[in-house]
Amino acid sequence: MRTPTRLTVLTTLALAAANLSAQDRPEQIARKVTVLDLSGSPAERGFAHGQALKAQIRENLREFKLDLEKTYKIEAKTFLQRFLADTDFIPAIEKWTPGLLDEVRGIAKGAEVPFDEVYAFQLADEIWSMGNWTLRDKCTAVAVDRRGDQPTLVAQNMDLPRFYHKVPTLLRVRREGGPDTMVLTCPGLIGVNGMNSASVAICCNTLLQLRPSREGLPCLFVVRGVLERRSLADAEAWLKRIPHAVGQNYTLGGTAHARAFECSAGAKIQFRPDPKGDFTYHTNHPLVNTDWHPDYVARCQKVDKLPQQGLRVCHRFAALEQRVGRGQPITIETIQATLASKDHAPGSICGDWNYCCTIFVLKDKPVLLMAPGRPDRIAFQRFTF
User: Fold this and answer.
1) What's the order of all strands across the beta sheet hosting 181-185?
2) How far out from the chain centre does Cα 338 lie?
3) Coil, strand or helix: which one is 198?
4) Which among 373, 336, 344, 335 has a CA at the least distance from the CA of 159?
5) Which of 242, 244, 262 is nearest to 252 (CA)?
6) Chain-wide mean pLDDT for the chain?
7) Are 86 and 94 in contact (CB under 8 A)?
8) Statement: residue 50 has pLDDT above 50
9) Looking at domain 140-164+200-219+230-369, does it have CATH number 3.60.60.10?
10) In 10 A of CB 29, how many CB atoms?
11) How many whole angstroms from its chain centre is CA 354?
């Protein structure tokens, strides 16, 4: 099979033009990002991904299985066999994101690892929600509509378990018959957030308190599916139409507006912190969707709490409320400062749990600003199509 890809390793040498000053960010350091330029069929793109990052994918799968065993106290092979037997996501994947399952098969073939392991690796949020309910609550998103000459901005600290952090990776996917996509990922995953050449962007924050579906479309496939849309309106309509496998807040953006939707098996509800505002933000606590996960309700009952009260205080959301609001400037600089903030430490927005910080600048020629690590220490890089 041909491998239509070019592997580029980029080293951060300088800040993007919009970065904060060195005085504000005194510890900034350079960090490499692995960039894969992929083209061809979904199977060919996946094979190129798997072949180029074979060693890293194998290491990620090893760490993934160790994490499962530590969390669920059972052999990973047995756990995954039971989980995959108890769920049926593939029909939804084939219906709503045709081709992506072939991309996953290609990754497995290129890396010379079992398909079931690579497929299960795409399903971390679904495993946390359905395997044995586990509250993992990280990720912080901020977005603002276009304001005059300032384009729409959609930004996120993507927070993942530490074993994901070793090789920050960006996929630039050239698609025949559709917009090209730029996807943040780690070796072996089809993507965790991203934007496309039509200036549509998406970020996702887990809402594991919401009801899942064993036959819905998994989160990472939702991300890639949105990035196949040519407009924000099309992306929003598609997001509302599909069945969702797991609770998530999806923050979408286009050239004029940004939107956030809390999605679960039974509901998709828009959230905006200020109904009259032109901005949105979110962490990992449902604010408008009450389609509760039964296991979450049971946990709340054990500690005499209502589901709306939550099991934990979200200091990150409090920091967003303080830093982002009506009448305040919301610019690249203020978003960088917000996502690098350590308000309410140790439960702060910024910390060692940050895998990457992404800011999607949505204009005629969209731009990605990305810090591959915690944004108070790691320099931003600029990427374009």
Assistant:
1) 5-11, 32-38, 169-173, 181-185, 193-196, 201-206, 248-253, 258-263, 268-270
2) 18
3) coil
4) 373
5) 262
6) 92
7) no
8) yes
9) yes
10) 9
11) 12
The helix/strand count (H/E) of the chain reads as 12, 15
Confidence of residue 27 (pLDDT cuts 50, 70, 90): low
AA letter at 273: P
Q: How confident is the model at residue 26 (pLDDT cuts 50, 70, 90)?
A: low
Domain extent listing, the chain: 140-164+200-219+230-369
User: 205: which strand partners?
Assistant: 249
Query: What is the distance between the alpha carbons of residues 384 and 345, in angstroms, rounded to a whole number?
Result: 34
Instruction: Choose among 284, 242, 230, 243: nearest CA to 260.
Output: 284
C-alpha 356/C-alpha 374 separation (Å) is 6
Q: Is the pLDDT of residue 181 over 80?
A: yes
What whole-number distance in Å separates Cα of residue 313 and Cα of residue 168? 30
Which helix (H) or strand (E) is 362 found in, with range? Answer: strand 354-362
Amino acid at 376: D
Mean pLDDT of all residues in 120-142: 88
CB 342 within 8 A of CB 354: no
Q: Are 253 and 144 in contact (CB under 8 A)?
A: no
Q: In which residue are the tokens 């919009």 written?
A: 18
Residue pointed to by tokens 């995953």: 189
